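Sanity check

After download, print the first record. It should look like this:
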Amino acid sequence: MTLALGLLCISNVYAAKQPSEQQLEQLRKDISTLKHELGSDKQQQHSHQKELGKTEKRIADLSRKQRQTRAELIKQQKAQRTLVSETQALRQKLTKQQESLSRQMRAGYSAGQQQALKMLLNQTDPGAAGRTMTYYGYFTRAQLNAVKETQLSIKQLNNAETRLQESSTRLEKLNSKQQQQARELQQQQANRKIILSKLNTEINSKEQQLKKLSGDEKALGSLLKRLAPHISPAIKDFSDLGKLKGKLSWPTKGRLKNRYGQPRNQGGMKWQGITISGNEGQDIRTIAPGRVVFADWIRGYGLMLIIDHGNGYMSLYGHNQSLYKDVGDSVTSNEVISSLGNSGGNNTSSLYFEMRHKGKPINPETWCR
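Expected structure tokens:
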């Protein structure tokens, strides 16, 4: 399959409003083929470059799992607090019921003995004896109800304590899981530093750096240039991005490190997007509704998400730490799609952000505020 044909297959899949699972599977296969073709040059095939991609994808997977574990942990901690409060309330309720029942039983025993003795020794007032027996019956039934309520409270407390123990066990396992993931992530990050050191040793001259940057930009540009003419002309329920110029929100907070159109190096290359520096792991959000057409690692840009907004508009998010969306996912405006990172061989955490219309770069600073 040629690169152009593969890209055409992608566009045909996305012409439908709701791609079927079969179409999405075909799209994933096409993207895999395209990645292989895009990575056929010597730089991408270099063992260290390939190793960097694999390591950063492992880091992304671990970061994503950590995020899920943290969410589970927060949810479990909240449930634990609720169970603790419920158990404490039941214990207090049971203590009061037991004290009340104890008083009733002592009073009932004393009153019952006295009334029974009087009724046996004094038979002169049958009416009074009847009333006493009726009252005694009410009192006895009240005691029985109190006993039943106390038994129910004991059962509820036992159930709550069982659930609390199970919750504590789950919480302990989640804490252990999080610690294990943190150790694995730390190990992978250490591996990444070693690989980067090897790569930086090999790419040490300005000429080599320029060649690498040119190759990175060419690979991405080739993909986007062929994808843009075939991008879905319109996607139902998506806003017309052309009407939102100057009204879009930035995908993340931070300082603009590189601006659109600025010289990128001494070789005459210019930035086709912007770089926003920020803290590792902070949220990256969509600028508008759309559908994910690419979610994977690509040389020079690391973990990349590309979103089709319809009408020829695309947005690109690179250097992510982890991706939270997959190919075929629909996204809403301002939805969290990834976390900020330094993938692609960067030494500092930042987001590389591009906007394109019909394949051509457009200045994000005139669209976002």
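If your output differs, re-run the checksum step. Summary of this record's structure: The radius of gyration is 34 Å.
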